[in-house]
Amino acid sequence: MPVWSLAIIPVAIGFLWLLFRTKQSHKRQQSTLSSEYFKGLNYLLNDEQGKALDVFVKLVESNWDTIDMQFTLGKIYRKNGEMDKAIKIHQGLIARPSLPERYRSKILQELGYDYLGAGWFDRAEGLFKEVLIQDQKSAEARHNLILIYQQEKDWFKAIDIAVDLFSENPTVIGPMIAQYYCELAEINSTKGDISQLQNNANKALRYDASCVRATVLLADQEKVAGDDKKAIKLYEGIEKQDAESMILVIDSLLECYENLAAQDKLYDYLVALQDRHENLFLQNVIASVLEKSQGKQPAIDYLSNKIKRQPSLAGMQKLISYKQKEVDADEIFSDLTTALSVMQKDSVEYRCQKCGFSTNTHYWLCPSCNNWGSVKPSVVELDQ
Ligand SMILES: [Zn+2]
Q1: Which of 48-57, 198-207, 261-270 has the highest mean pLDDT?
Q2: CA dihedral of 136, 141, 142, 145, whole degrees rounded to 10
Q3: Are residues 188 and 200 in contact, defined by beta-carbon separation less than 8 angstroms?
Q4: In sequence order, what are the residues at sequence separation of 6 or more whose Cβ sits closer than 8 angstroms to the Cβ of residue 53?
Q5: HSE toward the beta carbon, residue 88, CA cutoff 13 A
Q6: Both 7 and 147 in a single domain?
Q7: pTM, full prediction
Q8: In a domain, 115, yes or no
Q9: C-beta neighbour count of 265 within 10 angstroms
Q10: CA dist 357 to 124, 206, 244, 374, 377, Å?
Q11: pLDDT category, 338, cuts 50, 70, 90?
């Protein structure tokens, strides 16, 4: 069986189904239309796309109510990745002088999807803009424009469009706009434009009060500027936005406390934080802080005690490394440490809460499902 005939099967099935439906709803024209449809279908099955399209365009001109069939055919082609054919259908329709005005924006929209599928963002953008001129309320066109601007990293344009959608759906659109402002703030950060960075990060927080990324940007900025106290306040505020995300900033937080030589305060804070959120697995961090401020033994005591109640690979690994140094134990210890560190590396550090995508790198935009802020720290630990 040639490859093309496999590809044509879903097209043919979809078309037969449509034919059946059309026959139901247009009984009067049934006989003439049916024979033309079969002619077109026959061309399709013989892979004579050009001839098939000619037949279908003529058909739709004789009865514009059958245009849904062309849309479905276009969708089937698009699903099969045959953008050129989908584009031909929709371009053919839009070029018809007899095209009723009421169908124009729908055809433009479909053509826009074809261009998106083909990766021609410029052309798709132009079309969706045209749809908006025809139908100012089209949320679909706006969503597609947002996707295009997001792809092109044109954050200003993305914000412009998204703001129009905000009032309709603030819980979904708010966090998106916040991420766009964070993207701008990150650009400001690399350019060293502090006031714009703060401006954009604060705008992000206005659209989404729990935007962790904006707080991280503001806190990092204070830390770089040497205002450790302000930075600490901001980092610690993340607990209220999203407790799990504290893991993202714990190293920076430690540095700030160290700069202030406030190890004791840090210890109290971390223990309280761990008590509030068992799933944060802070025992290694706490042990390191204890070791620095009070020496090795208190760190070992803390860990051995903690591990009994809350076993974790990382905790065991750290405990073994302490004991190994202390008693200079056998090679077994060192082997075990190596094994555990390998297991630790294998475990997933971040996971998308929307689609389950796992990764060792933290992303603000999930590379798999394209959701903002859905990739969260997730430490895989031993069964308890
Ligand atoms: Zn995802």
Answers
A1: 198-207
A2: -130
A3: yes
A4: 85, 88, 89, 92
A5: 14
A6: yes
A7: 0.73
A8: yes
A9: 12
A10: 29, 29, 17, 10, 12
A11: low
Classify each residue of 299-328 as buried b or exposed e, where b means 16 or more C-beta atoms within 10 Å of its C-beta.
bbebbeebbeebebbbbbbbbbbbbbeeee
Tokens of 295: 């020496």
Distance 362 CA to ligand 1 centre (A): 12
How many C-beta neighbours within 10 Å does residue 141 have?
24
d(CA 158, CA 180): 7
* Residue 27 belongs to some domain of the structure: yes
Give the domain extent around 167. 154-261
Within a domain: 75: yes
Distance 348 CA to ligand 1 centre (A): 14
Question: Which of 128, 153, 178 is a domain's end point?
Answer: 153
Same domain, 86 and 168: no
Number of structural domains found in the chain: 4
Query: Has residue 203 got a pLDDT over 80?
Result: yes
CA of 361 to the centre of ligand 1 (A): 13
Extract the runs of DSSP E, i.e. beta strands, from the chain.
350-352, 358-359, 375-377
Determine contact, residues 12/78, Cβ cutoff 8 Å: no
Residues 66 and 129 in one domain: yes
Q: What is the pLDDT of residue 187?
A: 97
Helix (H) or strand (E) holding 225: none
Average pLDDT, the chain: 84
Position 197 confidence tier, pLDDT thresholds 50, 70, 90: very high
Burial class for 166, CB neighbours closer than 10 Å (0-12, 13-18, 19+): middle
Q: Where is pLDDT greater, at 364 or 55?
A: 364
Q: Are 267 and 289 in contact (CB under 8 A)?
A: yes
Q: How far, in Å, is the centroid of ligand 1 from the Cα of 268?
A: 35
**Ligand 1 mean position to 90 CA, how many Å?**
32
